[in-house]
Amino acid sequence: MAFNSIILRLELNHTLVTFGQVASAVSDAGGDIVSIDVIRPGSDNSVRDITVQVADEREKLVVDSLRAMPGIHIINVSDRTFLAHLGGKISIQPSMPIRNRDDLSRVYTPGVARVSMAIHENIDKAYSLTIKRNTVAVVTDGTAVLGLGDIGPHAAAPVMEGKAMLFKQLAEVDAFPICLDTKDTEEIIRTIKAISPIFGGINLEDISSPRCFEIEDRLAGELDIPIFHDDQHGTAIVVVAGLINALKVTGKSMENIRVVVNGIGAAGVSICKMLLASGVQHLTPVDREGAIIRGGTYTHPMWQWLASQPQLEDKPGSLHEVIAGADVFIGVSRGNVLGAEDVQLMAPDRIVFAMANPEPEIDPEVALPLVNVFATGRSDYPNQINNVLVFPGLFRGVLDCRAKVINEQIKLAAAHAIAAVVSSSELNEQYIIPSIFNEKVVKNVRRAVIEAAMRTGVARRIPPDMRSLD
Ligand SMILES: NC(=O)c1ccc[n+]([C@@H]2O[C@H](COP(=O)([O-])OP(=O)(O)OC[C@H]3O[C@@H](n4cnc5c(N)ncnc54)[C@H](O)[C@@H]3O)[C@@H](O)[C@H]2O)c1
Ligand SMILES: O=C(O)C[C@H](O)C(=O)O
Ligand SMILES: [Mg+2]
């Protein structure tokens, strides 16, 4: 159930209604008053803002029940989530003020010309003399936005702005949202290459499968800055981190578990690959048509690759059939595709990561009593397994060491770094993954990423605080 906060500005006629009656009406309709501000006091008549926490589907009920009461005039209803988006969520700040002509001639013509020529003579100077050093493009075509699907580049923008905010707040990385009005693979590749000079890295976001695989591979081969498809690898890294700790809690091991991954798109393919690299021996990937099986024939190139892996099971079936006996369910598909009856068929000490956004594969209220470890991609339940635990620290690391690429060792190092933030004394069923507000996350991920980049020879610079490791 998704909760929202609404602010109602009410004019109350006290001869007809008391505040106590307002509070009871809100509560009867399913809302919870979390704050009250008096805008205009008065003994006969007053204006107040009340902030009400309410489940999405009951919002209208709260408003309608107040509207029906005598003595109440609803001046305004505002949704705090929409208010947070008014005018967009990020802006660009200059790094110094331009106070006089002297400043102007330094940051702009004529002074800037000398700086441009210095970069022209040595292109590497772009890293020290422009924003390239610290700036990442968050690029989408709007085709796989959260679990909402192909909602287009304009509608994708709030998600991309959100990612940019998180980059900045959590890791001091400047990120810029780029929403492309094309779904053509070649045009997307060409456009990203053309805008790449100003960026130190490219975070691909919410680009649907299977185009996302070719776009990422081609860009990684053709550009010398790190390219990272967040929905693939950010998700896989955080899933492996969560699974490492969930297995400790349930006393199981990567080698012995049977894992069902539902939704073999961008996230699902990368999760399957990383699970295999982490030692999983029994894997059943499932998409809309049912299980992808060992020896099967598929037109999707990544599914065909999966079908050739010895750890894949060869028994066909629907999700409802193949989930029987599984130790772990990982969902990166769509909301509400898993029922209580499916979860009950799993092996004891079940682990369920229902990660579709915004609605998980199974309602947390239904799943929680049935499983040992439960996680979603959302922030309103314990164990938030979301790629936000990865991309800020990972890009902080690759920017700081100017890594050419993000290789498998870097990804695995990031997963272990996230898992290690939760100490053995803290670890329990409700706490397998650290909060994004835990300051150790970005620090640990950054450090692990730089070490792995140095170890594998892809770092082009050693940050001062890491020089003793050289
Ligand atoms: N928690 C996180 O950090 C995180 C990260 C990435 C993606 N996600 C979520 O995972 C989901 C998939 O994202 P993506 O980027 O991989 O999208 P995608 O479009 O690349 O892939 C989705 C896949 O799910 C399949 N699918 C759809 N309905 C299905 C069903 N009923 N049963 C089985 N498979 C089904 C599709 O055929 C497709 O292969 C989205 O809901 C997204 O929000 C969560
Ligand atoms: O945006 C998120 O919350 C995570 C992920 O990138 C998704 O697409 O769902
Ligand atoms: Mg995404």
UniProtKB/TrEMBL annotation:
State the InterPro entries in the record.
Answer: Aminoacid_DH-like_N_sf, Malate_Decarboxylase, Malic_enzyme_CS, Malic_N_dom, Malic_N_dom_sf, Malic_NAD-bd, Malic_NAD-bd_bact_type, Malic_OxRdtase
The cross-references to PANTHER family, in alphabetical order and at most eight, read: NADP-DEPENDENT MALIC ENZYME (PTHR43237:SF4)
List the CDD domains.
Answer: NAD_bind_2_malic_enz
Q: Which cofactors are named for this entry? A: Mg(2+); Mn(2+)
Q: Which organism is it from?
A: Paenibacillus zeisoli
What Gene Ontology terms describe what this protein does at the molecular function level? malic enzyme activity; metal ion binding; NAD binding; oxidoreductase activity, acting on the CH-OH group of donors, NAD or NADP as acceptor
- Domain Malic enzyme N-terminal: from-to ranges: 87-220
The UniProt family comment states: Belongs to the malic enzymes family.
Q: Where is the Malic enzyme NAD-binding domain?
A: 232-454
Catalytic site positions: 108 (proton donor), 163 (proton acceptor)
Q: Binding of a divalent metal cation: at which residues?
A: 205-206, 231
| Pfam families reported in the protein's UniProt record | malic, Malic_M
The name this protein goes by in its record: NAD-dependent malic enzyme
Q: Which SUPFAM superfamilies does the entry mention?
A: Aminoacid dehydrogenase-like, N-terminal domain, NAD(P)-binding Rossmann-fold domains
Q: Highest taxon of the source?
A: Bacteria
Task: Give TM regions.
Answer: none
